[in-house]
Prior knowledge:
The chain is mostly helical. It has a domain at 23-172: Alpha Horseshoe (Serine Threonine Protein Phosphatase 5, Tetratricopeptide repeat). 74% of the residues lie in helices and 0% in strands. It has 29 helices and no strands. The chain has helices spanning 3-21, 36-40, 44-58, 62-75, 82-95, 99-113, 118-133, 137-150, 155-170, 174-187, 195-212, 215-223, 231-247, 253-270, 278-297, 304-314, 319-331, 335-342, 348-361, 365-378, 383-396, 400-413, 418-431, 435-443, 450-461, 465-475, 482-495, 499-512, 517-530. The radius of gyration is 32 Å and the shape is flat.
Amino acid sequence: MTHDHLKHLIGAALLVLTLSLSSTVVSADELDELPIDGWKQLREVERYQLQIAEKYWREQNWNTAAAEYEKFMELYEKSTGAPFAQLKWALAQVKLRKQNTAIKEGFQTVIDYWPDSPQAIAAAYYIGRTQKEIGRTREAKVALKNVVAKHPAHLVGVYAIHDLIDMATAENDTVTKVDLWKKLTFDIKRTRDSNGPCVQASQQLATHSFREGAFDEGVKALATTYNAAQMPSHVVAYVRTPLSELIAQEASKAKALKLADQAIAWLKTSSPADQSTPEAKTIARQVLFGVADLTALAQRDDQVPAAYDAIVKAFTTDDEALGRLAAWYKSKMNYEKARETYRRYADKGEGLSQVGYSYREQQNWPLAVQSYTQLLGQDPERKIRWKPELAMTHRGAHKWPEAIAVYEELVREDIANAGRWRWEVGNTHRDAGQFKEAIGHFRQCENFPENYKQMAWCHRQLKQPNEAIILYNQVASDKASAPWAMLQVAYTREEAGQTEPAIQAFQQVCKKFPKDQHASTAHAHLQQKYKISVTLGGANEE
């Protein structure tokens, strides 16, 4: 993978991450909070009691929290805070897995005794959600639909729709899902609290519409979330998956090509006519990248080079476009064309580096070395950047002395990062099986505990268990590494044939770190190898 291709993938991953963050799972936490005005209406003694209950709630001490909410209701049943306390008591019952109690004695009580309170609206939603969580789907649907019908402009309506979508998804009920996505996308007023579910719905509706060939409908859905400048990149992002899925099947290829044509045509019309401003140029460039990407996804291989060349022509020499074109050539296993493309880079040094890397990908070590050596001659000002690539190439070819010689040069030339290069010298000796030499270099490093971990491993390869154990015990002084280090002590003793000490060491891991994943590993190992059962937190032989 080239650096430019990696950069492109990272950019795509960041976009996906941004999209996923805007599609977070809906939480109803806003409904179980008492507004500031509600706190102001309480008397001081009422506020004090409710704060105690809330403290235990935040600590997730559900039993105690429930008792404190109940105490509030007993002491101050006529308080304006009573419906809130009753609601929170019911939610505590849900946390305690007493859902039926929560519904009948908690949420329903809020509705019956305080029908005009804000908490009654929340309680109606929580009844439906709780029924959904315990598998009473039919009742949940009725309850949640009633919430949507009675409170279409309230946040509970948004949450209820989201839960109904979940159930429709589980039942593979696409018709219902689409109807609900449309409601969230087009009908619900977007606020700070409702925006997340509405954005998610617009994205899901767009993806579905694109997959079904309703391109214009997908664009309309996205336009409720993104402005004109954002639309080109997001249309491409949400067309990609449906297009890839459709093009992969012979039966849907025609549909895929039509979708690609529609998307490309739309992109071209969204490019600014006046590109005199930096903002307009950015949009125009995004459009051209989108056209090229979709052309490649549509497997129109004869048109891909021209699509990327259009970017290069429009924006002089565009190394990002050339890098993505080269990456596409490599995906087609046409490395010669990829290298030809890299040599067109405006940044000649970066281009030659990519040429060298492409040879490395093909394990053509001599030509990779030749490329990086040529690069060092042509671009000596950036030798600190290129020399590690040359060293990695020698390591890939198992030319250990040559790699070490390059790293030693870096130790002398790049004083600020000398420790990093000393570490790589140690790693190279280790990879070469030169464990004694590796230990000597790791000892000079200052990145404890990592250097001690490597030294210990090298001692194990040299059949020097005592030296390894001494180092692992020192690693254990680092709290984060302690469970791992103690487990390594156990394995080291086992390798040395010290069966009883090894068993004791495995048991110690279970005893000292019962909640750590390394204790689970030690526990499983004791059972499988030695037929010994232990209780995490204390060892007991069967």
